[in-house]
Please model this.
Amino acid sequence: MHIPTQTLIYLAVVFGVLVVPRALQRFRLPAPLTCFVSGIVVASFFKSLAEDNVFSVVATLGIASLFLFAGLEVDLLEIRRQLPRLSGHLGVRTLFLIGAAWLAMRYLHMSWQPAALLALGLFTSSTGFILDTLPESGLDASEQIEVTISAVAGEITALLVLFVVSQADSITTLAISSGELLLLIIFTPIFFLALNKYVVPYARGSEFSLLLMVGIICAVISKSLGVHVLLGAFIAGLVAGLLKERMTTMASDENLHAVRLFASFFVPFYFFHEGLEVPTDALVLRALLYGLALSAVVIPIRVVKNWIECRYFSGRTSQGGIRVAVALVPTLIFTLVIAGILRTTFHINDALYGGLLVYAAISTILPSFVLPRLGQLTSAEIVPEA
Model:
């Protein structure tokens, strides 16, 4: 029996991406982070894989399906109900983003666009990753709801800011792109309703594939607008969620679960592919120092900011506030996306790019070690005295 070498390499990669990271979760190592590091390691031995279109396509499926699921999870009614509290959150967040962008302009000598994106990458929680790990976080039900609402609202805001900043080269470009994005938002529900009326009744069982197809189409359209694929996929999920009552089968809970399973299979390949694309010049001591410095400065600021918001806008106790604040720390996906944009579009130096990757890794792994300890401390505090 003869198996081609390329086939063996693909099988080894699939096993390494789908099995090994899950096995290492017993040591509290987040699977996406392990996949990302695996991509860096594999690229150093098999450079040809970095240019393999197969992994690029599979990675796109992964990130598109993840943000399709994130859009489906959005509860706009709950967000509207929480709007007074979220307004305070977003106001404080805006001040911090402006402050971080100003510091980047002053001390890193960046123009305003990359400075704004850098601030966005440092302060935006990774909603997809947080939602995926929330059930095992040890937070109680009310804390999980607050983390979910805060992360989703922050992500919606960050996506809007990402769109505006990335298209702000000129007023004309921004106006045209905004018009095209508006058309996408208008025609997506029309497309969904047409499929639901003319296809679904005659093709039972096709709801999941149709929902996923629309998400991928919207992702490709948003990429053609010069924005990351995640924006289009998120819009598709958001629209499908809003039409849930009119598309009872396509936007059903079963389909939501199916999209989550699909994303959980393909998302590891996104992180692996991102690792494949890390240049060797980013793997230097200076990048590590940048990452450690960013982590030492930004993460405590974010925790304190989130804690203050929980205390004064949500009325939580000190212990509950710190648990929610730590749960919102991970930035993995959004930092990777922003770092890639900064490197390819604004040509930041590889050491700073590598520093952002280190920061993303530290911010993502931190809650898995800190939250269990916070839970133990809280349990110890409420044990009645003998």
Observations:
- The radius of gyration is 21 Å.
